[in-house]
Design goal:
This protein is α+β, with helices and mostly antiparallel strands and 371 residues long. The chain folds into three domains: 103 residues, OB fold (Dihydrolipoamide Acetyltransferase, E2P), CATH 2.40.50.100; 44 residues, E3-binding domain (Dihydrolipoamide Transferase, Irregular); 209 residues, 2-Layer Sandwich (Chloramphenicol Acetyltransferase), CATH 3.30.559. The protein contains ten helices and 16 strands. The strands form four sheets. It has a six-stranded mixed β-sheet, with helices on both faces.
Length: 371
């Protein structure tokens, strides 16, 4: 039985995804779970895995096309089997689409025609084909068109930056944010990191501690559905990771049940693959709370924008020595400022303050909390 390959949806607000590259070509043998194509959606480049074993056939969308989510873009069939689209629409005498040149130039239903040379050159030069005007016969985008686009100034935003701007604007204008700020004595956190040894970062410690405190405050780990509050059964922490054109939220699933070493391993893997454009859809979906740490960039404090349908994000600044009062005397201590952004439709000030207070206690007693 033929298996459909569809453009995946990662969030309710997502309408389309951009097909960047096929890892396999029509007629190739594919194995379930191996990378099949790359898409760009929701601020990140993702790998989509093959949903089954068989032969790739009936490809209808090509590189550079914006495809509605849920739309079938290809089929995986058994040897000798025809994809449903061919069975339904193609007569035996109308198989010109199998001509390799015509197939290479066949666009998605609303996409441009692209020559093989142009497609290859665009990938090498990093040119976004959606912004290139074709000058070849019937508007085909040629290699010369791509070369001119690469040599000309590139105004405007990349797709990732545009999506990031759209999503943050939507969140800021539709989600009633409020912010709570807490300054913390980070002596215990510093000691916990030193005790944990090489390979463990402050971000790893934050993930572990935030996940444990969220378990005590389920409304901070909830989601807003548009007309109701839904409690999430698991704590899935999204980490804001800087990539070339913006920021992506990569998810450490079920972080509350994970050990510190496991969190560190998963965080390193997600970071490396995010910056290489090799994340998979499960890596960026299902988050229930976000941590954004800019301490490594020397930032003391900042406020972050919530990612719906989550109801909270923790913004973390750097740890820096400051003079503070300790029992009435000036002392130098490593201090840390954290800022909690909350959705007022789900939590009120007192509930968010209780969460932040417990988190502050966990950070200051990190060695005890982490055993």
């Amino acid at each position: 039985m033929a298996i459909s390959v569809v453009m995946p949806a990662l969030e309710m607000a997502q309408e389309t995804g951009k097909l960047l590259a096929w890892r396999k070509k029509e007629g190739d043998q594919v194995t379930k779970g191996e990378p099949l194509l790359e898409i760009e959606t929701d601020k990140v480049v993702l790998e989509v895995e093959a949903p089954g074993d068989g032969i790739l056939a009936g490809v209808t969308s090509f590189e550079g096309a914006d495809v509605p989510v849920g739309q079938t873009i290809a089929w995986i069939v058994a040897p000798g089997e025809q994809p449903p689209a061919v069975l339904d629409t193609a007569a035996p005498s109308a198989r010109a689409v199998t001509d390799p040149v015509r197939t290479a130039l066949t666009p998605a239903s609303d996409g441009p025609k692209i020559s093989p040379k142009a497609r290859r050159l665009a990938k090498e030069l990093g040119v976004d084909l959606s912004g290139v005007q074709g000058t070849g016969p019937d508007g085909v985008i040629t290699g010369e068109d791509v070369q001119r686009a690469a040599e000309s100034p590139q105004p405007g935003l990349s797709t990732i930056a545009r999506l990031m701007a759209e999503r943050t604007t939507q969140s800021w204008t539709t989600t009633p944010h409020f912010f709570l700020v807490r300054e913390i004595n980070a002596t215990g956190l510093v000691a916990a990191r030193e005790q944990a040894g090489a390979g463990i970062t402050y971000t790893d410690l934050l993930v572990a501690l935030v996940a444990r405190v969220l378990a005590k405050h389920p409304k901070m780990n909830a989601r807003w559905t548009g007309d109701a509050i839904r409690l999430n059964p698991d704590v899935n922490i999204s980490l804001a990771i800087a990539i070339q054109d913006g920021v992506v939220g990569a998810v450490i699933a079920n972080a509350g049940a994970a050990g510190l070493a496991d969190i560190a391993t998963r965080r390193r893997d997600l970071t490396e693959r995010a910056r290489a454009g090799r994340l998979h859809p499960p890596d960026v979906s299902g988050a229930t709370f976000t941590i954004s740490n800019l301490g490594m960039f020397g930032i003391d404090a900042f406020s972050a924008i919530i990612t719906p349908p989550q109801v909270g994000v923790l913004a973390v600044g750097r740890i820096a020595d400051r003079v503070v009062a300790v029992e009435g005397q000036p002392m130098v201590r490593p201090m840390l400022t954290i800022t909690l952004s909350s959705d007022h439709r789900v939590v009120d000030g007192a509930q968010a303050a209780a969460f932040l207070n417990d988190l502050a206690g966990a950070l200051e007693a990190a060695q005890t909390w982490l055993g």
